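Hi Y.,

Following your request, here is the sequence exactly as I used it, all 399 residues.
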Amino acid sequence: MHDVIVVGARCAGSPLAMLLAREGMRVLLVDRASFPADIPHGHFIHRHGPRRLREWGLLGKVAARTPAITDMLVDAGDFPLVARNLVEDDMAWGYGPRRTTLDQILIDAAAESGADVRPAFNVFEYIIENGTVAGIHARTQAGLPVIERGSLIVGADGRNSGLARAVGAPVYNHVPAILCYFSYWSDVASETFELYVRTLQRRIIFSFKTEDELFAIFVGAPMDEFERFRRDVEGEFNRSLNLIPGFAERVRAGRRAERFYGCSDLPNFYRKPFGSGWALIGDAGLHKDPYLALGICDGLRDVEWLAEAIREGLGGARPLSDALADFETRRNEASATDYQENITAAKFAPLPPEFFALRAAVRDKPDEATRLMKARNRMIDPSDFFNPQNLQRLFAMTR
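Below is the corresponding structure, written out as tokens. Let me know if you'd prefer a different format.
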């Protein structure tokens, strides 16, 4: 009998198991994959993600494998604005480890913390007794059937969660998504992070340095172009790059190192993240398309809050249902603004004049450009930059 069984051992399930095991709970962590194993998902970590990895003692392991992202180029069709030295409290703005690296670091941390970790462990059914999820039916790598029972079963098994399907977890705030294709290039002269937004042509291109001196390039487009992309991925990808001639020239001077990866099943939705004997975390409970690259950093944030709720509920400090209800409220309130911003951006809505005016105001002020990017990415308190007095000062300097 386990206190908690976590189904899914990637960037939400493993840190949840780690945090609970560090509290002395009996945690079983399972995944159908054998690790290390890659998945065709984005893998950029920014905003509050690096801070949590550092607090958990894991950022050093990530930084040892992939370059710190401390520079950013953003071009919204007006001009390239470059911000440098994006470091705060001795921590870089972002990191882009491959999923084979990140997931293995997190799985190892869960095991080292005392969780029982079982890869190649395929859950095919959930045990539901009198409306309460009580355990799992699974098969080992050798095909042997296994039954495991727990006080709480957590689905960290992605947007198509089997646990969510088994319990009929309600979906709300659902919005269709953009599609996304990406690959990796070597020998590309670039900033460590580059972002290009072309709303009229309905494209976003973001790219960053990752492991092994590779440059990851992602192209986002509207879902109504899916069939065209599917028929000619390389052609459509290159036509998207051609919207930024200088960038395209630099990319073609390098060499594509891997095949193209893509996904169209990237909807935006919330799911009710708990019920009798079960909970959901990560993409299983809250999924966003990749436009603002919020998946991993928000997942790490929510893991910390769910672990706190489970600790209180199973520890007897308060009813588990009350603690999990508070987790849902906390998750929803923290994600609401970014969720709507992500949806608006993914619809390729025209950017407001104020956005371009502010960029123009800091164009020739490197320190202010850095402060702008730090504020937008929550490295500093946004109100320290986006307050009337500071904005008035910046606009006055451009007159």
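The longest helix spans residues 320-346.

Thanks again,
Q.
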